[in-house]
């Protein structure tokens, strides 16, 4: 797949077209060059994946080729997921699922886009709803975030304050993305605040306890854990206050 996608992009001139609207691609002359950078663990490639995700997302540029380019860059991770799940799916299933996750993604995922796509693909493929029976131990993102538990009234569980603003829906992850997109567009929260929430959720989904995740994120940002918690709480409070307006908007 990789060779075909890279050849198509080279012939179409799309990479240059993308670079004109997405500055995060500027460091590489082609998808092939970015792919080599990814293999060298060039940190700039995290931004490239984020940029391509924004271009490929239906909420962003809605470019199917950009979504394919993400799958090409994540080839090593896709192969690892396929190997881990070899008893329930094949490589083509993982590639397809990663592409679908890019299309459904929030375009402002930032540098965590790569890990998020692979995690979501793995979770989707190991759920019974995917038509496959998982033989590996897996915890869904719904469980990590507490969406599989009954909702409580506001204020009963302070650590779930962000989730309480979200109505019960068939796909809570997509609904959360919709909420964050809506909140950013009307000025309730900023893009960097969304990035912080995604970073915290990703850390918890990796198996960290909540306080451990806050401490780790704080260390990456060079601030104390309580600073991260205050930032999260302020953002969650604004989302909670805006919840009635959001529910009215989607009714």
Write structural notes for this entry:
By secondary structure, the chain is mainly alpha-helical. The chain has two domains: 2-130, no CATH class; 141-250, no CATH class. Helix content is 65%, strand content 0%. Helix 5 crosses helix 7 (91-104) and helix 7 crosses helix 8. The longest helix has 26 residues, at 225-250. It is globular and about 50 Å long. The model is unreliable at 129-171 (pLDDT under 50).
Short description:
By secondary structure, the protein is mainly alpha-helical. It contains 14 helices and no strands.
List the helices and strands and how they pair.
Elements: H1 2-12, H2 14-21, H3 31-39, H4 44-56, H5 64-73, H6 75-84, H7 91-104, H8 113-125, H9 141-145, H10 161-164, H11 172-185, H12 191-205, H13 210-221, H14 225-250
Helix pairs in contact: 1-5, 3-4, 4-5, 5-7, 6-7, 7-8, 12-13, 13-14
Key traits:
251 residues; mainly alpha; 2 domains; 14 helices; 65% helix; globular
Q: Please provide the ordered H/E string of secondary-structure elements.
A: HHHHHHHHHHHHHH
Distance between the termini: 41 Å
Mean pLDDT: 79
In what range is the share of β-strand residues?
A: under 5%
Shape type: globular
Largest sheet properties: none
Number of strands: 0
The number of distinct helices, counting runs of at least 4 residues, comes to 14
Radius of gyration: 19 Å
Structural class: mainly alpha
Q: What's the number of domains? A: 2
User: Would you identify the regions where 5 or more consecutive residues have pLDDT less than 50?
Assistant: 129-171
Percent range of helical residues: 55-70%
């Amino acid at each position: 797949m990789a060779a075909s996608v890279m050849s198509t992009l080279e012939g179409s001139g799309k990479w240059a077209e993308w670079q004109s609207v997405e500055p995060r691609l500027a460091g590489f002359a082609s998808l092939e060059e970015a792919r080599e950078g990814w293999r060298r663990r060039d940190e700039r490639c995290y931004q490239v994946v984020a940029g391509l995700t924004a271009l490929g997302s239906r909420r962003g540029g809605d470019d199917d080729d950009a979504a394919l380019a993400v799958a090409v860059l994540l080839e090593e991770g896709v192969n690892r997921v396929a190997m881990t799940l070899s008893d329930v799916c094949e490589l083509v299933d993982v590639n397809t699922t990663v592409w679908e996750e890019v299309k459904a993604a929030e375009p402002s995922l930032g540098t965590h886009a790569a890990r998020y796509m692979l995690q979501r693909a793995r979770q989707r493929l190991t759920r019974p709803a995917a038509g496959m029976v998982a033989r590996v131990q897996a915890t869904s993102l719904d469980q990590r975030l507490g969406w599989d538990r009954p909702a409580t009234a506001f204020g009963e569980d302070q650590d779930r304050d962000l989730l309480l603003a979200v109505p019960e829906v068939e796909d809570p992850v997509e609904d959360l993305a919709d909420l964050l997109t809506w909140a950013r567009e009307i000025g309730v929260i900023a893009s960097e605040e969304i990035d912080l929430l995604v970073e915290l959720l990703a850390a918890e989904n990796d198996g960290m306890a909540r306080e451990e995740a806050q401490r780790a994120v704080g260390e990456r940002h060079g601030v104390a854990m309580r600073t991260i918690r205050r930032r999260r709480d302020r953002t969650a409070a604004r989302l909670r206050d805006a919840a009635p307006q959001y529910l009215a908007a989607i009714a």
